[in-house]
């Protein structure tokens, strides 16, 4: 047993902590040294999506003390930054175990520090929290959620005045503040007079804004048959109402998954990226001959969209396909009104390069940032004179306009229906629209491999894999030479042919990207919120006709298979 871990754990036996916590820690010290190590070997850290982890006692867990320390530090920081203001924060929570009670604890700590709190009366989608920060004129916002993680997880996302998640320099400054205080400094004594419950009024404002940004007077809404599942999450509180008000009256909800439930009893993982999660919805779609399926994750920021392919079979689009379809649709809408050329779309370094091709074709800018929608929100903040059209990332997230500064499955679900209704009304389909885009802009094919490595040993394995990729870089992949390597940890891009290097002008991140002579792209990135290392593959070619689709797709799939086998990831 690491003596420093035991020493840290013993500090949780003091009067600072409640009896239940002290008893559990004492039992761990006495009987379970391995579990004690896992819970106390480090402090839970902020990642790309804030703080996320397994619930339980310990410094490496989500509990009232780790979140209380965050909130106390954030209170201190807000008072330093806004010394003359009446500080206001908005707080929301999802369907997870303890989300409501943790949201109340966070509210109590803020109020104990004299801060005005707007707490949602019931669970709400994460994008509504982002919207409410600006709508209510708050200095920051918090949402208690672990997105699509397993049931034992929870999390703490922090939003700033613009409604976007924390970015530099605020994130580093708040982390410094967290590290400077002790658990004994947390003020838990609530001032109820400073806590205001919010609900219907904000819902109405959010729904109105979603309809304004996500609907386009599309024909054929009454003929589109949709199956929708909230996967036991928060979107059931908003999405059906948004679609109903937009005129989609053929909405069929998967009733078995409509009740919010932190156990997510009908799925292995409440993640719409996984086809298994949408099994029930896809089955219902076949029973009623639906045109499309929409499924959202527990906090309603990600959405999965399934449509019928050329053979009439319902298939799940990947995040890159959904993103380019939505972006192209929005660009066409803006083009009709008149693009000026100063507009921009947003994407991320591990998402499809097809976004760049779209931007070039429409004569607008595509800004590419690190993984996570906080960086797309920062693009909007940093470029206030450039109109933002929309943006996304491969992990099933999209943002329509800038009224929400995070991925928004509510408005994106409406947009998906608008696209499908328009295509059906014109005698086509979303899948045919996608194939035509491959003809017009190039056929880009992507795949993600995600390897789970849990615990201390898992983290060490992930670190070793990244070290190996850096110290022994690939020379050739899939029969094509590596021509460029981008290392976002060192902020150095290297041209392999000339040996020239250049600086990557984005914040440092543990990401490595290889580019090949034939236009393929391979990225490696440890997850910032899960015990995983992710590998992203993108290949492309030109295609002349829809008749070539099947053979071209198979060729690209085989190419990705070859690369994966060569990297020994199969």
Automatic annotation (TrEMBL):
Residues 45-183, 217-306, 318-438 form the Alpha-D-phosphohexomutase alpha/beta/alpha domain. Keywords: Isomerase, Magnesium, Metal-binding, Phosphoprotein. The keyword Magnesium applies. Gene3D superfamilies: Alpha-D-Glucose-1,6-Bisphosphate, subunit A, domain 3 (3.40.120.10), Alpha-D-phosphohexomutase, C-terminal domain (3.30.310.50). Pfam families: PGM_PMM_I, PGM_PMM_II, PGM_PMM_III. Belongs to the phosphohexose mutase family. This is Glucose phosphomutase. It comes from Imtechella halotolerans K1. The lineage of its organism: Bacteria, Pseudomonadati, Bacteroidota, Flavobacteriia, Flavobacteriales.
